[in-house]
């Protein structure tokens, strides 16, 4: 046998136990959570049924009858409280003499009612030496939680009476006594119903319901993860997708109109714009953008129409400044304002700059192409600069000067 035969092959182990994908792990967790929900719900149903199912005993009783309940299970808490065990005694009167006045039902905490000691029948005696007869008299005078009495009066044949007791855990002796001088004519059908597991079973059933609720939440969470893993496009809600698309369209559209040279405040911002950047001539800018289509809020000498889009973006630096400033367009717009307004304000003429600014403007702001080789600068706070820029071959932006 060679050494290679005794060495385990790790590759075979890897093939035998393949790793699970994240989707398979999520699906397995979802299945386990759903099974846990069903399991805890089933346990809760069983415990509720067990707690509500009574221990029943039926018997026939004449004028007097003793019944030993045996040990009744429950929480070992003495005194009347919510942990007491419910006991229901149903008495159906089948036959009773006319001189019968009442039926007394005693429930006395005792280990037994009677028992045989050395061949003789002996009644129960408590630690103080009191017999059942003495305990009956004491109960008639004053009841306690360990000695209880309920009386049925105005009895009649064919009637059914329900008596309810709440007792502590332990052994009890139940005595049913009919007060009559003709005991042989008494016939009662008695049913004992005890619920010793009501508190314990009900508490465990509620705990199982709580666990099933947590398992249901976990199953919903795992189910959502599985759906997102199988359909990645549905991770975002429709509202989120619409908001993101609207924001993207606004950013790509740019401002609706360029800034003017007259007012001191920049335009309020773009409301809509072209879905693609305008194209311009390859030879450079020919004229600055003409400005907004409506007059601004303050005095302005700038153009009134937005820059017209050309067939494509500029492919190279401008060959030079345009042939002349657009004073003709400005004068035409001034004439329109004079005819439409009774008292137009004087339009300030553009003062030629003494010296063209040749220093390139290199900033972190955004320059938006407006066509014709002209750009508007968008500041960090969302407003726009009042100056029109053009771009050279090195990618630097310069303020446009009509006299340059």
Give the topology, please.
Blueprint: H1 3-6, H2 10-16, H3 22-52, E1 55-61, E2 64-72, E3 85-95, E4 102-109, E5 114-117, E6 120-123, H4 132-141, E7 147-153, E8 160-167, E9 170-179, E10 187-194, H5 198-230, H6 238-253, H7 327-340, E11 366-371, E12 374-378, E13 384-391, E14 397-399
Helix pairs in contact: 3-5
In words, what does this structure look like?
The protein has 404 residues and is an alpha+beta fold. It has helices at 3-6, 10-16, 22-52, 132-141, 198-230, 238-253, 327-340, and strands at residues 55-61, 64-72, 85-95, 102-109, 114-117, 120-123, 147-153, 160-167, 170-179, 187-194, 366-371, 374-378, 384-391, 397-399. The protein has three domains: 18-54 and 196-235; 56-194, Jelly Rolls, CATH 2.60.120; 261-404, no CATH class. It contains seven helices and 14 strands. The chain has a four-stranded antiparallel beta sheet, with no helix packed on it. It has a four-stranded antiparallel beta sheet with strand order 2-9-4-7, with helices on one face. It starts with a helix and ends in a 5-residue tail after the last strand. Residues 258-286, 291-325, 336-342 and 351-362 have low confidence and may be disordered.
């Amino acid at each position: 046998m060679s050494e290679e035969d005794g060495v385990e092959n790790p590759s075979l182990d890897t093939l035998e136990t393949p790793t699970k994908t994240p989707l398979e792990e999520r699906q397995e967790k979802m299945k386990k959570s759903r099974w846990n929900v069903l399991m805890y719900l089933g346990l809760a149903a069983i415990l509720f049924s067990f707690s509500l199912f009574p221990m029943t005993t039926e018997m026939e009783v004449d004028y007097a009858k003793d019944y030993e309940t045996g040990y009744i299970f429950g929480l070992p808490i003495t005194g009347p409280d919510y942990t007491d065990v419910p006991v229901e005694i149903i008495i159906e009167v089948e036959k009773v003499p006319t001189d019968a006045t009442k039926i007394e039902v005693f429930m006395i905490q005792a280990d037994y009612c009677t028992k045989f000691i050395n061949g003789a029948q002996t009644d129960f005696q408590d630690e103080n030496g009191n017999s059942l007869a003495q305990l009956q008299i004491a109960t008639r005078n004053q009841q306690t939680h360990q000695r209880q009495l309920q009386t049925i009066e105005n009895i009649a044949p064919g009637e059914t009476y329900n008596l309810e007791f709440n007792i502590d855990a332990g052994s009890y002796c139940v005595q049913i006594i009919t007060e009559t001088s003709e005991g042989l004519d008494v016939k009662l059908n008695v049913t004992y119903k005890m619920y010793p597991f009501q508190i314990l079973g009900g508490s465990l059933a509620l705990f199982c319901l709580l666990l099933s609720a947590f398992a249901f939440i976990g199953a919903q969470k795992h189910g959502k993860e599985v759906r997102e893993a199988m359909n990645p496009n549905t991770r975002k809600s429709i509202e989120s997708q619409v908001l993101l698309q609207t924001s993207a369209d606004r950013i790509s559209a740019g401002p609706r109109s360029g800034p003017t040279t007259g007012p001191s405040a920049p335009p309020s911002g773009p409301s809509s714009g072209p879905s693609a950047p305008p194209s311009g001539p390859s030879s450079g800018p020919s004229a600055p953008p003409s400005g907004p289509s409506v007059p601004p809020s303050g005095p302005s000498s700038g153009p009134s129409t937005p820059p017209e889009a050309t067939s494509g973006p500029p492919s190279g630096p401008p060959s030079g400044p345009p042939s002349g400033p657009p004073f003709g367009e400005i004068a035409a717009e001034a004439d329109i304002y004079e005819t439409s307004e009774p008292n137009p304000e004087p339009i300030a003429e553009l003062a030629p700059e003494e010296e063209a600014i040749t220093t390139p403007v290199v900033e972190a702001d955004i320059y938006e192409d407006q066509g014709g080789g002209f750009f508007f600068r968008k500041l960090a706070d969302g407003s726009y600069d009042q100056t029109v820029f053009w771009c050279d071959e090195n990618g630097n932006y310069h303020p446009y000067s009509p006299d340059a």
